[in-house]
Amino acid sequence: MKMLKKKHTANARTAKTIAQLPEKKPAPKSREARMDHWKKVFLGSMEKRGLVMSLVVYTLLITIAFIYLYPMLHMLSRSFMSKEDLLDASAKWIPSSVTTKNYKDAILALDYWNSLGKNLILALLPTICQVIITSMVGYGFARYNFPLKKLWMGLLILSFLLPSQATSMPNYLLFSRLKLIDGTVKPFVITAALGQGFMSVLCILIFYNFHRQVPQSLVEAAEIDGAGHFKAYFRIAIPLSLAAIIVVTLFSFVWYWNEVYLAQIYLGYGTTRNTGLTTLMLELQRFEDSYNVTFDARASSVTSPNKLNDAIKMAGTMLSILPLLLLYFVLQKQFVESVDKAGITGE
Amino acid sequence: MAGKKVKNPHDKRRITKRRVSEWVHGYLFILPWIVGVCIFFVYAMVQSLRFSFSNIVFSNGITFNPLPNAWDNYASVFMKEINFPVTLANFGLGLVLQMPIIIAFSLIIALMLNGKIHAKSLFRMIFFLPVIIATGPVMQQLTAQGVSTVPMVSANTLTNVLSGLPEFIAAPINDLFSSLILILWNSGIQILIFLAGLQKVPSTLYEAAKIDGASGWESFWKITLPVMRSMILLNAIYTVVTLATGGDNEIIQLIYTVSYAATKGYSYGAAMSWIYTAVVAVILLLVFLLLREKSDKHVKYETKRIVQKGRRWQA
Question: Which of A26, A307, B105, B188 is in the most buried spot, having the most CB atoms within 10 Å?
């Protein structure tokens, strides 16, 4: 194979020098033709990938796919294991008996159904605000020219690039002075409604790119036909940007679902559960504490039957990402394809 | 409409009724964001800068007590908080090490996915999965389980190889391998960005190169890479931003605990977050300078040199 490769590059080099000459490439000799044929089978040509290359590509892809899935598979198999299986080295992947006790315990410790409902509110309301506002702002930037536009664009990019740690504290103080830190969704909705929600800038840029690709003449034609600026936006721009709306909705939902830092700040995070809203990610972060409280296992000894173990932790982790996994498997195509459709990449 | 009376509607300096209405409507559309960015970004930035240069006390609103030395908070971050410089250095070093891996890895995956392969959508689905589920607490749980590393890489061989190196270099490399899966998990969006970019490379370029006798290897270096340069820059910036704002970042957790702890307080945390912001900004700037398209500048420099040489000859 090595030889073949060498030959291949050497051949390419001569081919290059030949190509620079005005004459055409001389017809290959019979031995070379044979070599060429096998080379094509193994190394492939421009049109078709060879056997070696295919093998390399698929091996790499499958290996990397396994590496990607490995933590997930581990989580899944662990979460069904009984305590005995955890200690048993022979049951590394497949549990000897499938138990759902871990999930039952984790549901109790996470206060799952309650937290799930709260998390849904906390993810959905800001998402709706975010989609509406970022769509408008993205459209405004894409469609209109106005003085100081460059300044605002610069500010937009800057607020995306710089980490939010410097601003989160004054914002927290502002909200707490306005008595808005009360364990409700208010701070999230307010920031999202003013285009300052989580990852809002990215959403604005997605809409900006999308609306810029829409032919101006379409919108202008509507305006000439008597549609006002807002009517043109509602009747033409919004229906045309449906793909972008789907991406932004899906991603905003996922981002808000997974957000930990802001949730910690705005919900008044502590080690004990408060009465206000919560997210499953926050609950997962304090899983050990709440488990010990729920099962009163802290005081009891190592041999206690209710001692927290890895399997229960994995079940808890699994439960907290389960809604997202379901969403992903249902809307997988929209997630993956929309990213390049909506032009997240920018031109 | 108003445009009728105007002699030259394309004259940009001319203020017409139509243009004013464009301005007004443009501002109307972005108004919510302008209000938001002024309150939650500009004002907040100024405010936290003020925090960091004073000692703030909360009683009936905020009182800013002047410090004996303006830079006291910043100094004490480095003097007292032993963890901070170390964590910050680790963060910077980790970023520098992780970024090339993420970029190279996602480019390779994108190239493979861009070719003709079976089950393309299945692979795409798998590679994109971490974007949905990889978050701070989940990562923490998985790291605690020890599944953040590739099972095949034996820890012993690695430590043997690294034992020859000094500690400050060996430690980040060791970290790198011990969290290889997490690093790869961070490449989902980057893969898609590269994929989208690859699909925009005109196929005529490759055909022309092929006619000239270029091999696939050559056309990768001479066509794909130069065309993808802006995508690489975009991805590098995106990587820095996501890694710097990600919740599983130790330094952010440190800033959070310090800021909201009763004993240390806001001004201290504000100084810390400003140092962090400055470091991230510097890294971004370096990335930008390193990866931007510099061919123009190079040409300019060369011509300048040649012209100077010519003058010297004349003299």
Answer: B188
Which structural domain range is residue B203 located in? 74-134+186-292
- Report how many domains make up chain B: 2
- Give chain A's largest Cα–Cα span: 89
- pTM here is 0.78
CA dist A308 to A271, A291, A305, Å?
17, 7, 9
What distances in angstroms separate CA A237 from CA A3, A149, A202, one per listed residue? 59, 20, 19
Could you give the angle at which helices A51-79 and A30-43 cross, rounded to 10 degrees?
10
CB contact under 8 A, B33 and A147: no
Both tokens of A119, joined, read 């998390």
A229-248 residues touching B, CB cutoff 8 A = 229, 233
User: Residue A243 phi/psi, 5° resolution?
Assistant: -60, -45
Instruction: Measure the CA–CA gap between B309 and B314, rounded to whole angstroms.
Output: 9
Closest to A69 in 3D by CA, of B105, B107, B111, B142: B142
Residues 35-54 of B with CB under 8 A from A: 35-37, 39-45, 47-48, 51
What is the CATH number for B119? 1.10.3720.10
Task: Residue B213: list chain A partners with CB under 8 A.
Answer: 12, 15-16, 18-19, 25
Comparing CA positions, the residue from A297, A329, A327 lying closest to residue A312 is: A297
Q: Which of B182, B139, B291, B254 is nearest to A68 (CA)?
A: B182
Q: Is residue B314 part of a domain?
A: no
Query: What are the phi and psi torsion angles at B48 (to 5°)?
Result: -70, -25
pLDDT mean across residues, chain A: 77
Residue intervals in chain A for CATH 1.10.3720.10: 111-285
Phi-psi region of A148 (alpha: psi -120 to 50; beta: other; left: phi over 0): left
Question: Which ipTM value was assigned to this complex?
Answer: 0.77
Q: What's the whole-number mean pLDDT along residues A16-33?
A: 57
Q: In chain B, where do the E strands start and end? A: 54-58, 62-66
Tally Cβ neighbours within 10 Å of residue A329: 12
Which residue reads 């662990």 in tokens? A78
| Residue ranges of chain B with per-residue pLDDT less than 50 | 1-6
